[in-house]
Amino acid sequence: MRWSSVVLALLATTQIVSCDPLEKSENERRFQDCGKKMASKVYMGRDAQQSEAPWSVLFFLFKKDRKHATTCTGTIVSPRHVLIATHCFALLNEGQWEIEGKQLDRKHCEQDDYLITDDNILERIQIQSDGKAVARHPEKVTLVKACINRSAVKTANKYTNVTHQYYVDDFAIIDLYNDLPLNTMQQVCVASSESENAVDTELDYFGYGLNPPEDKGYDQAPDNTGVLRQETVKVIDKPMEDYYFLAKDPNSITVACTGDSGGGAVKDVNGQKTIVGVLSQTNCAHPKYRNDEAMEQYASVGYYNEDVCRLTGICADDQQYDKYHSGYTKKPKPPRPTESPVIPQRPVGGVAVDPNGTPGKSPAPRNQEATEESIDPTQDAPEDQSSLKVDPNGANSGYFHTILALVSVFVML
């Protein structure tokens, strides 16, 4: 996390299955336990302790060769659900999401959502907390609202040169097969309405993204993936569709970067840490975009509150829960056969954005590329990954570098 121009990180995987929403009693316990106060934070993009954001996890989607991976940041919202960005699984091509070079198969669309249930994709997913693998091979991934086509409503005639990224949903939910042990990890609370991301709201963001030097692009800097970082941002007053909002560091010092995609921006709500935004795009790829106008685009969690309840059983109250899950009881499922762990040695993430948010220019990210890195799956992850090198020449890199040469980059991280 820091000033750095990035290429849109849209390497996507889609998976979903009829997984286990929370039972009503589990949802009630979740609301009592979520977002408990933790240790004081480290500001201005410096390293943070995992205990400061025990809900933040490092996400890996391995390529088929198991030697490269795309990384993002995710947020634990229940023992078996993680919020993340759609572009951590899918690539945006002319306004349409694609998974591993193929357009979304409409037969996997359900109530406007795209479900990833293909084990060939799911088995290549791993989630880490504090440098240790805590989950892999989820049961499904839901790309929320990925099957609908949107157009400008609130932002109609507000900006010119706006690309498709402005009008696609970049919000996803991972359904884990087994519950996470919430001891050193913790679930964060979930925003109940868009009012939680009102203008001037101050948020804390934690992510596992890169931290390149001020005069270097992300592809020329040491890879800091695996190091949790923190920044404070404030929601700014620029027109956006209801499912997004923009925020920036009031001091113009830090900005989210490659590998931060999908991470959660949180605030205190009634004394509990609550996720308000899921990071989508930013201005970090190149030093020239790291100016006073650099900003970050977030999916509004409050906007998707009904979808979160419908898909996960994480609901604001019993009335909302019964609307979708009345009488639901979780059924036992058999344990999975033991799978050999895939532990990354040198992971990387990616994204980039153009933040010129003045009338006549799009304030939102333009395009994004997943950065990849060689990984030795036979080695344990090193305790200190700050010296890892990023290989920016991943799949589709030529295509995206061409795009980035033509447009300014406000990138999906």
Question: Can you describe this structure?
Answer:
- With 413 residues, the chain is mainly beta.
- The protein contains 5 helices and 21 strands.
- The model is unreliable at 1-17, 38-46 and 341-411 (pLDDT under 50).
- The protein has one domain (24-350, 359-386): Thrombin, subunit H (Beta Barrel), CATH 2.40.10.120.
- Residues 325-392 are annotated as: Disordered.
Question: What is the fold's blueprint, element by element?
Answer:
Elements: H1 24-33, E1 56-62, E2 68-78, E3 81-84, E4 91-93, E5 96-99, E6 102-103, E7 109-110, E8 113-116, H2 119-122, E9 125-129, E10 132-136, E11 140-143, E12 172-175, E13 189-190, E14 202-207, E15 229-235, E16 244-248, E17 264-269, E18 272-282, E19 296-300, H3 305-312, H4 318-325, E20 373-374, H5 397-406, E21 411-412
Parallel strand pairs: 13-18
Antiparallel strand pairs: 1-2, 1-9, 2-3, 2-20, 3-12, 4-5, 5-6, 7-8, 8-11, 9-10, 11-12, 14-15, 14-17, 15-16, 16-19, 17-18, 18-19, 18-21
